[in-house]
């Protein structure tokens, strides 16, 4: 069974600075998807960034980028130029490809609470 | 509506009671998922529907939990004989299957269930 581990329960960053959130996972599959989700106090999960395992190039979405190390099974999220609105819980998630899994349920890590100091 | 909606937003019940939680997915999304998020934890998968049928219910913790999606749109998660340990936020998500986006799941705001 696949597992996702986030070893940093809390992180803090100064506004405008850069922060990196860590995530490791365990799987025997060769093709899969990895995600970072943001969950503000409103509870609604918002997709931040997605990475397909077969792609070697790291995904980037504006101020958000990932460092995907497939051999090490590591998937960290870097937030550049941090803003007050980035403060939230961040969850790393794994999903098998649809061919391997019935519908692609997400497996989440425990989360990292990010605070942004003005 | 534009997004996934869930009702009620909050539900307080007494131990032993029956509760129903509703999810309205994004129109046209054939896949629907239920997750449970306990305090301080990441969401855990409960059940997945493709259309009207439950394609994967491996995450349901026991037979007190049941979910339906009779017309392939709205889904109801039903919990019988609630226990204090059922207290959590129940999240619903929907997605287009086999889309070019890899079936991105869009989440609702969740229902916070409190069992006293």
Provide the structure class of chain B: mainly beta
Order of helices and strands of chain A: EEEEEEEEEEEE
The Cα radius of gyration of chain A reads 14 Å
Largest interface: A-B, 24 and 29 residues
Query: What is the subunit arrangement here?
Result: heterodimer
- The total count of helices of chain B amounts to 0
Terminal residue distance of chain B: 33 Å
Q: What is the helical fraction of chain B, as a range of percent?
A: under 10%
Q: Give a short account of the largest sheet of chain B.
A: 7 strands, mixed
Number of DSSP helices of chain A? 0
- Low-confidence residue ranges of chain B: none
What attributes does this structure have?
heterodimer; A: 118 residues; mainly beta; four-stranded antiparallel beta sheet; 12 strands; 0% helix; globular; B: 116 residues; seven-stranded mixed beta sheet
Q: How would you describe the overall organization of this protein?
A:
The complex is a heterodimer of chains A (118) and B (116). With 118 residues, chain A is mainly beta. Chain A is built from no helices and twelve strands. In chain A, strands 2, 5, 6, 10, 11 and 12 form a six-stranded mixed sheet that branches. Chain A has a four-stranded antiparallel sheet with strand order 3-9-8-7, with no helix packed on it. In chain A, strands 1-4 form a two-stranded antiparallel sheet. Chain A is globular and about 40 Å long. Chain B is an all-beta fold. Chain B is built from no helices and eleven strands. In chain B, the strands form two sheets. In chain B, strands 2, 4, 5, 6, 9, 10 and 11 form a seven-stranded mixed sheet that branches. Chain B has a four-stranded antiparallel sheet with strand order 1-3-8-7, with no helix packed on it. The chains are: A mainly beta (118), B mainly beta (116).
